[in-house]
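R.M. (postdoc): so does anyone remember the format we settled on? I'll just put the structure tokens first.
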């Protein structure tokens, strides 16, 4: 049950209305979680700026991080959204389940990324040295490390917002890993 409403376009500021219009054009709808950011005059534009900022990570790599982090944080909204986005980026259902577990047996470099994202999130930034060494040994750079940590922060913000507000999920809802044979 939601603790806060999902605001409609007419309930938000003119600045946020313009963002809603752009999201409608780009995505086809305004995702409930983005709409929830619009309760704040600045949070939606700030979050979208962070989410759309330049990064060394490719779209598919970002989904690796998004899925691993959202699983650790048990955010059904973000898991559901990023499962759909992960499929649009070419991941299979089986690969998405692995990424949610913080691993990728199908790709050594993505495996190191998934393990880093999961470990960093689980340990609140105190990443295990062995995980970090594995990340670099897989071919990642210091730049990709920093960009991954920024993305962990980005995803944690949206995870926490949903876990606090419990706004309805407007993507096909995914089952918890415990309910799936993996």
């Amino acid at each position: 049950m939601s603790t806060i409403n999902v605001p409609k376009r007419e309930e938000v500021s003119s600045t946020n209305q313009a963002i809603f219009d752009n999201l409608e054009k780009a995505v086809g709808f305004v995702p409930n979680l983005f709409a929830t950011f619009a309760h704040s005059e600045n949070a939606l534009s700030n979050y979208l700026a962070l989410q759309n900022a330049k990064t060394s990570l490719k779209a598919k790599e970002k989904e690796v991080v998004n899925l691993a982090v959202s699983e650790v944080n048990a955010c059904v909204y973000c898991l559901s959204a990023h499962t759909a986005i992960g499929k649009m980026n070419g991941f299979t259902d089986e690969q998405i389940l692995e990424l949610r577990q913080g691993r990728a047996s199908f790709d050594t470099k993505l495996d190191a990324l998934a393990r880093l994202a999961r470990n960093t999130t689980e340990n609140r930034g105190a990443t295990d040295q062995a995980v970090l060494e594995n990340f670099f040994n897989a071919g990642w750079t210091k730049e990709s490390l920093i960009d991954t940590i920024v993305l962990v922060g980005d995803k944690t913000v949206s995870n926490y917002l949903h876990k606090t507000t419990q706004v309805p999920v407007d993507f096909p809802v995914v089952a918890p890993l415990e309910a799936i044979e993996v």
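R.M.: ...and that's the designed sequence above, right after the tokens. Also worth knowing: The mean pLDDT is 96. Residues 71 and 102 are 8 Å apart (CA to CA).
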